[in-house]
Design a protein that fits this description.
The complex is a heterodimer of chains A (327) and B (468). Chain A is 41% helix and 7% strand. Chain A has helices at residues 2-29, 41-49, 61-64, 90-102, 127-132, 142-150, 153-158, 170-178, 213-228, 247-256, 292-316; strands at 55-58, 79-81, 109-113, 232-237, 265-268. In chain A, strand 1, helix 3 and strand 2 form a beta-alpha-beta unit. The chains are: A alpha/beta (327), B mainly alpha (468). Chain A binds chain B through residues 1, 3-4, 7, 10-11, 14-15, 18-19, 22, 128-129, 132, 153-154, 157-158, 161, 163-164, 166-168, 170-172, 175, 198, 200, and chain B through 5-7, 20, 180, 182, 185-186, 189, 216, 219, 403, 406-407, 410, 442, 445-446, 449-450, 453-459.
């Protein structure tokens, strides 16, 4: 038994030493010098090379692929699109904004793209992916540390290993690092080429009777943080190829569940019928994503909508808020 | 409780240290309690079903042994088999039966909304083999209920096998006074890590691609479906053999030796050989208690083929209450019958080229059957096979996420490399007995563990075979 105990001690110690050594070396020589890819590289780029931006676009792939910062002329200055594929919901964004403040990056405006359906409790199984995507930065965000604790005791134990932060990301980071951080462009926008060739079955929106309270809290916090830091927050709800019945109604539901109704601009663009030039199939890559042609048209519409909001604010002195906006 | 969870790590650490300091009956009680806790981790009340099957077969076996008349022995045997199978029928096959009954007779019998007790088919088969062996006079009935309970429900093999035979496990459980050797612990530990690697790195990452394609199969081309099917073949192997490795490893750390369940099945040169290497504890069970009982190959060629088909059809149905599983079993039965008819023998050709061709052919044939295993309906399986057979343009292949796919293939490459170069010729025991063997195993485990932390799918779910 002594031999077994000794073996276990040596094994655990070796795991610990290896974990710390590899993670320190990896972070120092590889990760911190990776400036592309969605396993942390694009955020390194934002934190290290774009820390003087004037406005930030945040959200999912629908932000990444559909909003071109260079075309948002109404927001003067330099912008960066930090949209992310696969995740990019409000939990991710809540952590991202926390990280921005930690890195002392304060853009004048933030455009937060989101979708009403993402707030459904039925989508809660995607929360884990949103949270774990930002693990490489866990030391810098208290919100992320709290979220990880909410994933359970097992997650807390796993995070005792520093290498676990790079779980599922190691290969991507290495590839991006050794591909010499081949960034397509410097504003983060990633336009999709090609047009939609087929349609999936018509989507129906999840029943939003049960909202995910974690996400509601996250959105509240985003609004609060932006308000406290004097950042103009535009919450954008983009359209889809086909309107989904009741989505606009659910937006109203979402509004009613927000407790912290501080100042922010809601840009409701859900209804595709309001944008006839976006309706053609040739503008879309798939039902949820505009291609490069559609994205440019959409950004122009977004630019106009933002201009309209700002104009109303200038005239009446009060921004359009969740509290008083008419949907 | 899942082997690939921190909860199990804590659970096993406690069990291991208590087991080490206890002896005889103390160990038996500990195993019983630990196994009950392990099982109750899923749905606590279902442990009562487990206890019920244990009691049925425990008393049936004693009844068989106490009887002097062959007729009474047979009655006890039938009582054990029927009652145990009844439990299986009620929980696993009732709804399947209702569906078919309604379909054939236009009836309107309702489903019974019940969750299948985890691993039910495994412990039912283990119990049945015990009763049959007692009836055949090959083993003595176990009079100690605690020992017998541990035989059926010993936690490492409780929910997904290997389906242990009483002749192997009961004597070990009866003694329970053995000293835990360092060699056993070291070999068991490495075996566990190897199984964990297979499950978390290969099976769970492959499932990302497989699920994405199969859950939206109408949107994917033939080549994409082909790659997903091949990946599913690897996923199910790593998921199930990974579980077996972990089960064997856990038992070995406690000083118990389970039978092997997999022997690198995808290196088989014929389907016959494949079934001697795949889920060996089930295939030997089917051979000993079904195929041979049907007459085996003793009643002429034609009857042999029928027996093979019947055995594999039942084997398919054992996996799940669905016609897809029956077809899966039927296809394998067909392969075996054709090989038998063609006189294909289990040989090891010296020419490496012939070896590769044969292995590839067997792999592809077996992969085709997995379509029925993975698809949720018969029409889905048909559509997938149709697309794979008609759309052969590789330009239509969709990798989904290239980086994810590359990570999957890296894991598979590592798996194949270790299996081909190391495990094909050496067991863990052999490696341990090499000079500095224990250190080699420890370093390999360490390296694999780091790889698991970096590349494993930390969001991986249950084992596929739990549902059976």
């Amino acid at each position: 038994m002594k031999k077994i105990f000794l073996f276990l001690c040596c094994f655990v110690l070796s795991v610990f030493i290896l974990d710390r050594t590899i993670s320190i070396l990896f972070e120092k020589f590889i990760f911190n010098k990776t400036y592309s890819g969605e396993s942390g590289g694009n955020l390194n780029y934002l934190f290290q090379k774009k820390n003087n931006i004037d406005f930030l676009i945040a959200g999912s792939s629908r932000a990444k692929n559909m909003i071109n910062p260079d075309s948002l002329l109404v927001l003067s200055g330099e912008g960066y699109n930090a949209g992310v594929n696969g995740v990019g919901g409000v939990l991710y964004m809540n952590v991202l904004f926390d990280l921005l403040l930690h890195k002392k990056i304060k853009p004048a405006s933030i455009i937060l793209q989101t979708d009403v359906r993402d707030f459904s409790i039925k989508r809660a199984n995607g929360n884990r992916a949103e949270i774990t995507r930002l693990y490489p930065f866990i030391d810098d965000s208290k919100i992320l540390q709290e979220y990880s604790q909410q994933l359970g005791f097992e997650e807390t134990i796993k995070l005792k290993l520093n290498l676990y932060r790079f779980n599922g990301k190691f290969y991507n980071i290495m590839i991006n690092r050794f591909k010499n951080n081949s960034l397509n462009n410097s504003n983060g926008f990633n336009a999709l080429s090609g047009a939609m060739s087929f349609m999936n079955e018509h989507e129906t929106i999840d029943n939003l009777d049960h909202f995910d309270s974690l996400k509601i809290d996250a959105l509240n916090n985003i609004i609060k943080v932006c308000d406290e830091n004097n950042i103009k927050l535009f919450i954008v709800f983009p359209p889809r190829y086909k309107n989904v019945d009741s989505e606009e109604m659910h937006l109203s539901d979402l509004r009613s569940r927000l407790k912290y109704k501080k100042e922010c601009f809601v840009v409701d663009m859900i209804n595709i019928n309001k944008y006839p030039d976006l309706q053609g199939q040739s503008n879309w890559k798939d039902e949820a994503h505009l291609n490069v042609i559609g994205a440019n048209k959409f950004t122009t519409h977004l630019n106009d909508s933002i201009q309209e909001k700002l104009k109303v604010t200038a005239e009446f002195g009060n921004p359009i808020t969740f509290k008083n906006i008419k949907f | 409780m899942l082997f690939n969870s921190i909860a199990f790590l804590i659970f096993f650490s406690v069990v291991f240290f208590l087991f080490n300091y206890l002896n005889g009956n103390g160990r038996k009680i500990l195993l019983f309690v630990a196994s009950s806790v392990f099982y109750m981790w899923f749905i606590p009340v279902y442990v009562l079903i487990l206890y019920l099957t244990i009691l049925i077969d425990y008393f049936s076996a004693i009844g068989i042994e106490n009887s002097t008349s062959q007729k009474v022995k047979k009655r006890h045997l039938l009582k054990g088999i029927i009652n145990t199978c009844l439990v299986l029928f009620v929980f696993k096959y009732y709804n399947f039966f209702i569906d078919n009954f309604n379909f054939l007779g236009n009836g309107h019998l309702k489903h019974w909304e019940v969750i299948l007790p985890i691993g039910l088919s495994f412990h039912v088969f283990q119990s049945l083999s015990y009763v049959i062996e007692v009836y055949r006079g090959n083993i003595k009935a176990e009079r100690n209920l605690l020992v017998y309970s541990n035989f059926v429900m010993m936690f490492p093999q409780l929910v997904a096998g290997p389906i242990e035979r009483a002749s192997n496990l009961l004597p070990q459980l009866k003694q329970c006074d053995h000293k835990i050797e360092y060699s056993d612990f070291s070999i068991g530990f490495s075996r566990f890590i190897w199984g964990l690697f297979k499950k978390v790195v290969v099976a769970d990452t492959a499932s990302i691609y497989v699920d994405a394609v199969y859950n939206n199969y109408t949107a994917h081309s033939g080549p994409t479906l082909m790659v997903a099917t091949v990946l599913f073949a690897i996923q199910i192997y790593c998921d199930f053999s990974g579980y077996s490795d972990m089960a064997i490893g856990v038992a070995r750390m406690l000083g118990f030796r389970f039978k092997e369940n997999f022997a690198l099945p995808y290196f088989s040169k014929s389907v016959t050989e494949f079934w001697r290497r795949w889920h060996m504890s089930l295939s030997s069970w089917l051979r000993d208690y079904l195929y041979i009982s049907f007459g085996g190959s003793r009643k002429g060629k034609f009857r042999t083929y029928i027996n093979l088909m019947l055995t594999m059809l039942i084997g398919g149905l054992w996996h799940g209450a669905s016609w897809n599983f029956v077809i899966w079993g039927g296809l394998n039965g067909l392969y075996l019958s054709v090989e038998k008819a063609l006189g294909v023998k289990v040989t090891n050709p010296k020419n490496i080229f012939i070896k590769i061709v044969k292995c590839t052919l067997v792999f592809l044939l077996i992969s085709l059957t997995w379509v029925f295993f993975r698809a949720t309906t018969f029409s889905q399986a048909n559509e997938i096979i149709y697309r794979m057979g008609t759309d052969l343009q590789w330009s239509n292949f969709n990798p989904l996420d290239t980086n994810v796919l590359t990570s999957i293939f890296m894991g598979i490459g590592l798996l194949l490399g270790i299996e081909y170069t190391l495990l094909r010729k050496n067991s863990f025991d052999v490696i341990f007995n090499l000079s500095y063997g224990h250190l080699k195993l420890a370093f390999a485990s360490l390296a694999l563990l780091i790889y698991i932390v970096l590349f494993g799918n930390s969001d991986g779910g249950q084992f596929i075979y739990f549902q059976f």
